[in-house]
Write a structure and sequence with these properties.
Layout: H1 2-19, H2 75-143, H3 149-171
């Protein structure tokens, strides 16, 4: 019995908090899968819309001063402004989502462009390396003509002929 009484007392203490809880939770415009409640203020909206202190309604008689300073508006005007704020919240959410998509698209494009540029430069470098290797092979082949057996044979014949001629002139 005592636990039941304790539970009832706790519920009675929490009843005002439970029943008068603010239906507007913090709105999150960053999640594109969950659309926010446009009846509730959006993020950082408190810095854009001044907080007005609402008082009870009072009857205003023509020619009499108002009991406090304020702005007098028709009910239709108040409804119009409320719908306008709700529409502006919706536009703000849609624009934020479009900016996020635009930034993601630009980021993807820049990454793909940088990757393509890197691939191009890599292929150019590989092509230059292949050209260098081929040029070095051609150069080595061009410098090695004197090491061939035909050059040695021709050189041997020319040296022998020159030596024989020189020996012939010397012996005469």
């Amino acid at each position: 019995m005592r636990p039941l009484v304790a539970l009832i007392l706790v519920l009675l203490q929490l009843w005002p908090v439970i029943t008068f809880a603010d239906p507007c939770t913090r709105q999150d415009y960053s999640n594109p899968k969950v659309e926010p409640n446009y009846d509730c203020p959006g993020p950082d909206e408190d810095s854009m819309i001044p907080q007005l202190q609402m008082r009870d309604s009072a009857e205003l008689l023509k020619g009499k001063p108002a009991p406090w300073d304020g702005v007098l508006m028709d009910k239709n005007r108040v409804l119009f402004l409320g719908l306008r704020v709700k529409g502006l919240r919706r536009i703000r959410y849609i624009e934020r989502q479009s900016f996020v998509q635009k930034i993601e698209a630009e980021s993807t494009f820049l990454k793909a462009s940088a990757r393509a540029d890197l691939d191009l430069r890599t292929s150019q470098r590989d092509s230059y390396k292949e050209q260098l290797v081929q040029a070095q092979k051609d150069l080595a082949r061009a410098h090695a003509w004197y090491r061939s057996w035909s050059f040695g044979l021709v050189l041997g014949i020319v040296v022998t002929a020159a030596g024989a001629t020189a020996l012939g002139f010397a012996l005469r």
